[in-house]
Amino acid sequence: MKENMNPDDAKLGALLRASRVTLALPPRFQENVWRRIADAEAPVPSTSWLSWLDTLAALVLRPRWALATAAGLVVAGALLGAHEGNLAANQAAQAQYLAAVAPAALR
Amino acid sequence: MNRSLAIVLGALGLGVMLFSGSYLVSHRICQVCVTQPPGSLDWMRKEFHVNDAEMARIRRLHADYLSQCNLMCQMVAAKKQEVAAALNNATNVSPVAEQKLAELAACRVQCQSRVLQYFVEVSQIMPPAEGRRYLAKMQNAAFGAQEGNEQPVSEPAGHEQHH
C-alpha cells in the first residue's frame, strides 16, 4: 500500500493531523453521561392517581364486588325512596285535611 | 389509563342508574300504597300519637265541624257574589260596595275564628304536648305568612328613584 502512496497524500495526511482540533471535555462529562443513561433506562414511575384508577377499575370488574355494590345501591335507593314516599304521602294527607277544614276561601 | 377511566365512569353511571331507578320505583309504590282516601284522618294518629278513643272523639268533632264549614263556605261565596254585584260596572267604590266588602270581611273573620276554635278543640283531645304541636302547626299552615299573599305589588323598574 505504501508503495502506491502518492507523496502528496503523505503531505495531506500531515496537514490534516496538524489541523485536528482537540477539544477539552467538560468537567464530570463521563459521570453525567452514565447518569443520563441510567435515568433513561429506569422504569417510568406511575403517578399515584393512575395506579389508584387502575386498582379501582380492577375492583369494579370483580363480579362479587360488583354484585354486592349493585345490590347495596338498589337496597339503599329503595329504602330512601320508601322513606321519602311515606313523607310525601303524609304531607299530601295533611294538605288535604287543611284544605277541608280551612278552605282557602275562609282564610 | 383510558380503559380504566372508562370502566370506572361506566360503573359510576350504572350505579347512579340503579340507585335512582330503585329510588323512583320505591317512592312511587310507597306513595300509592300509603296515600289515604280523601277525608281520612289516619295520618293524625301516626303524626300526633293519638289513641283509638281520642281518634273517635276527633272524628265526631271533625264531622260536626265539616257541616258547619260547608255552611260557612256557602255564606262567604254568597257575600262574594254580593260584592261582585255591587262592583259590577262601577267606576268608583260606592257606599253599597263598601258595605258589602265590610260584610264579606266580617263573614271571613267569623269563619276564621270558627276554624281556630276547631283547631283548639281538636288539640284539647290530643295528649297535651302533641296538642300544642298540632295547634301550632295548623295555625301556622292555615294563617301563617303565606308566600306571595301579603307582598306589596312590585313597582316597575325606575320608580324607586322618585321616592
Short description, anyone?
The complex is a heterodimer of chains A (107) and B (163). Chain A has 107 residues and is mainly α. Chain A has a domain at 48-101.
Highlighted features:
heterodimer; A: 107 residues; B: 163 residues; Four Helix Bundle (Hemerythrin (Met), subunit A); disordered C terminus
Ends of chain B: how far apart?
65 Å
Overall strand count of chain B: 0
Radius of gyration of chain A: 43 Å
- Residue-averaged pLDDT of chain B, rounded? 84
Radius of gyration of chain B (Å)? 26 Å
Tell me the greatest interface: A-B, 39 and 54 residues
Strand segment tally of chain A? 0
Number of helices of chain B: 5
Give the averaged pLDDT of chain A, no decimals.
83
| pLDDT < 50 runs, ≥5 residues of chain A | none
| Tally of individual helices of chain A | 4
How would you classify the helix and strand content of chain A by structural class? mainly alpha
Q: Per DSSP, what share of the residues of chain A sits in E-state strands of 2 or more residues? A: under 5%
Reading off the top of the CATH hierarchy, the class of the domain at 42-143 in chain B is best stated as Mainly Alpha
CATH topology of the domain at 42-143 in chain B: Four Helix Bundle (Hemerythrin (Met), subunit A)
**Could you state the oligomeric state of the chains shown?**
heterodimer
Low-confidence stretches of chain B: 147-151, 153-163
Between the first and last Cα atoms of chain A, what is the distance in angstroms?
126 Å
- Main sheet summary of chain A: none
Question: What are the secondary-structure elements of chain A, in order, as H or E?
Answer: HHHH
CATH architecture of the domain at 42-143 in chain B: Up-down Bundle
